[in-house]
Amino acid sequence: MSHYPPSSPAPWAPPGRPPSRPPGRDRASGPLLVVSVLCTGLMAGLFFAYDISVMPGLAELDDRTYATAMQRFNAMLDGSALFGLLFVATLGLTVAGAIVAFRGKRRAVAVPLVVAAACYLVVLVITVAVNLPLNADLEALGDAATAQELHAVIKDFKSVWVPMNVVRTVLCVLSLGALCFSLIRYGRATER
After folding, report:
1. What's the rounded Cα separation, in Å, for the pair 102 and 100?
2. Bigger pLDDT: 125 or 2?
């Protein structure tokens, strides 16, 4: 006969109430990570497409055609609610993912999310501080066929906008890499 009480079964849970999840699991992290990866990938792809096709193609055109084409591209993007939503939501989703991961005590998932958010935040700052003002200068030319100082404006535009877009591309790719790393860590944590 043993002097120890028999081992008790797992604590009773009220009917209809799901058992508690192990630490590190929640319903929001996985979808947030996947959507963040997709949004950041779309932004990186947009910037990359400008780097390897749009801007080199435009560089072969005369200044008037270059200005007219860029004015139209900018008008299309500025008028696109979908682009605006994607541009801003990418940061919001990544930050939300980091907050959820930190609250769930999943530091290994959260830290790369913070890196991804920081990289993308710099993309937003560059866009607002550099690229958008240059787009506004180009728009202020009006009709490129009759614009004054067209060559000087285009020269300044090309010398700053193009390299800054390369920087935005690199930062978006770094953000995407950090997000993928976080997604891998999340997957490993949920397999346990």
Report:
1. 6
2. 125
